[in-house]
Amino acid sequence: MEKSKAKLKSSLQPMPKVLVSCRGLNGEDNVLAVGYCGNCSYDPPMVMVGIVPTRYSYQMIKESGCFVVNLVDQSYKETFDYLGSHSKRDGDKLEAMKVKLKDGEKVNAPILSDCPVNIECTIVDSIVTGSHEMFIGKIEYVHADAKLVDQEGNIDFSQISYL
C-alpha cells in the first residue's frame, strides 16, 4: 500500500474524551475536557492527563496534587461540549450546565455523578512534554455505575456508549 507524508500532529486517533475534575486549595471546583490521557502503569495502577498550563484548572491541579478522570458517555455530550468550550474564567460553567458534583472518597476533588466511571488520582509525578504538562496520577479509588460492575469488581467498559 502506498504511503503519503502526513502532518505532524496528534496522530493517535480516536482520542479519548474525558472530563477532569479538580478542586483548588480555596475550595473552588472546576472541570475541563482533556484529550491527552491514558493508562501509564498497571502496578501500581496509574493514569496520566495532559493539561496546557494556560488552562484555568492547571494551577488548581498542580497545587492540590490530585484530580479525577470522569469517563463520558453519549448522554453527557451536550455537557461535555459546553465544558470543553467554555472557561470558568468567563463564568460559572458548572452552574450553567447544572453539573452534579459529589466529593471524592479518597482525594479532595469532586466526581461528576452523571458520568459512568470516575477515577480518583493523586499526582505522583509530572513531565512537561511541550504544549502540555502530563500529570501522572496514582489511582486511589474508582467509582462505577453499579450496572457496569461484575461480582469481582471488574468494569464492563463495552457497556459504555462513548462520545
Describe the structure.
- The protein is mainly β and 163 residues long.
- The chain is 13% helix and 37% strand.
- The chain has helices at 56-64, 77-85, 93-96, and strands spanning 18-23, 29-34, 37-42, 45-51, 66-71, 101-103, 110-112, 117-128, 133-144.
- A 7-stranded antiparallel β-sheet has the order 2-1-5-8-9-4-3.
- Strand 8 and strand 9 (133-144) form a beta hairpin.
Short structural description:
With about 160 residues, the protein is mostly beta strands.
* Second rung of CATH, namely the architecture: Roll
Could you name the CATH class? Mainly Beta
What is the fold-level CATH name, i.e. the topology?
A: Pnp Oxidase, Chain A
The count of domains is: 1
Distance between the termini: 31 Å
Overall residue-averaged pLDDT value: 96
Overall geometry? globular
Helicity level: 10-25%
Strand element count: 9
CATH superfamily membership, which one? Electron Transport, Fmn-binding Protein, Chain A
Q: What assembly state would you assign to the polypeptide chains in this entry?
A: single chain
The helix-and-strand class reads mainly beta
Low-confidence stretches are none
Query: Which strand order does the major sheet show?
Result: 2-1-5-8-9-4-3
Number of helices: 3
Radius of gyration: 16 Å
Strand content: 35-45%
Order of helices and strands: EEEEHEHHEEEE
- Characterize the biggest β-sheet: 7 strands, antiparallel
